[in-house]
Amino acid sequence: MTRKTRLFFLDAARGLGMLLVILGHIWETDGILPVLIYSFHIPLFFVISGILLNYTQTADRPVRQVFFSGLKELILPYIFFEFVFAAIYGLRNHFNFNGQNIWGGLLLNPLNVPLWFLPTLFLSELLLILLLKAEKSGRLMTAAAILLYLIPFFLKNNGSPLLSAALRCCSSVGFLALGYAGCGLILESSPRPAALVILAGLEGALALVNGKTGIYKLTFGNPLLFTVCAAAGSFVVLSALKRVRIRILEWIGENTLVFLGLHMIVLRIVQLIPGLHTDTFPGGLAALVLVCALLTPAALFINSFLPFLAGKKRSK
Q: Does residue 148 have a pLDDT over 70?
């Protein structure tokens, strides 16, 4: 498998994950489809990031370089999209933020809720890299990641935003480490379609038994079922997308930051369309198409004039 093929396949996986994120915010219920989506879609992003950490040998770079690269590629877009959302929210509500601490929320509990993923990824990647630098064989990273991953299952949140943020990082480190350790297996294995169908069916059945889960709200249900579903669902998606190129998913994956940062704004506009019942299956799919269509010009504009907000360098 060539380098380009690998990157295309990971971009497609991110693109599919982003579509599932949007659908999860369209169908805000405990129905079958939301339960299936939430069982693996966020862990999938962290697993992909872990694969990329391994494949690009990021841990071999100086910590200072990794830190400032993360600030530019993750935290700067996070701050920009949060301020855009806060400005629009303020204009719509006469700058009444219902007592929310905007500055504190910027770090721990953003108004634009999906953006929680970016600082969590930044901190989790940095921690994983420090662990890898401390002990090159990866044993320390594996042991520490397992320990950190288990903490949120036993330490109950007391409502503190700081504790919630820390526990999300603990869960995220576990899936980053899974992607890092399983990089070779995921990139090189080629399970048969029948095996993937069976695994997907088992994952779906276990997800329905466990109920709706999510790293953001730290709702895991049964820890073992949560872990199995997240890992199995991620593996099925990654393995399936190696078999066929879907360019629209690749493009969305390349513009994940733009879609992540702006989709809640666009979704709220789409939900105002008379007669569009987004809580239904056809209405939800129609809303997804409309959101993606409206976000496309924004992504093209940012790619052309503000590429750093999409995690890209300006082309010369």
A: yes
Q: Is residue 185 part of a domain?
A: yes
pLDDT tens digits along 186-202:
988 889 999 999 999 99
Which residues make Cβ contacts (< 8 Å) with residue 68, sequence separation at least 6?
A: none
The count of structural domains within the chain is 1
Residue 205 lies in a domain: yes
What is the rounded average pLDDT of the residues 84-105? 70
Residue 98 has pLDDT above 80, yes or no: no
pLDDT of residue 136 exceeding 90: no
Measured CA to CA in angstroms, residue 140 lies from 46, 73, 131, 147 at distances of: 19, 27, 6, 11
Closest CA to 255 of 222, 219, 288, 303: 303
Question: What angle, 0 to 180 degrees and rounded to 10, lies between the N-to-C axes of helices 256-270 and 117-134?
Answer: 160
Residue 315 in domain: no
* Cβ neighbours of 166 (radius 10 Å): 18
Residue 316 falls inside a structural domain: no
Instruction: Answer for the pair 117, 260: CB distance below 8 angstroms, yes or no.
Output: yes
The single-letter DSSP state of residue 75 is I
CA triple 55-216-110, angle to 5 deg: 100
Range of the domain at 84: 3-310
